[in-house]
Amino acid sequence: MARSMAFYKALGFQFYEKEMNPLIVFFDNQGTKLELFQREALAKDIHAANPPEIDSTSFKDLL
């Protein structure tokens, strides 16, 4: 998450998060928002009761 935050910050996105490894971060971008989730948090957001399996590169069997 810290690397992703640094990447988007270097592109000019602004955020107000103080932690360097939050579960989620919101970036301001001239009237729009960009959200970054940690994969585990995103899996739970997709399906809280039965989150998709996470491998080293992506989610498996999202449906």
Low-pLDDT sequence parts: none
Share of β-strand residues: 25-35%
The N- and C-terminal alpha carbons lie at a distance of 25 Å
Q: Which sheet architecture does the biggest sheet show?
A: 2 strands, antiparallel
Overall structural class, as computed from helix and strand content, comes to alpha+beta
Radius of gyration: 13 Å
Please report the number of helical segments: 2
Shape, per Cα inertia axes: elongated
Q: Tell me roughly what share of residues is in helical segments.
A: 25-40%
Say how many strands there are.
4
What number is the mean pLDDT? 78
Please, how many domains? 1
Q: Going across the major beta sheet, what is the strand order?
A: 1-2
Q: Name the helix and strand elements from N-terminus to C-terminus, one letter apiece.
A: HEEHEE
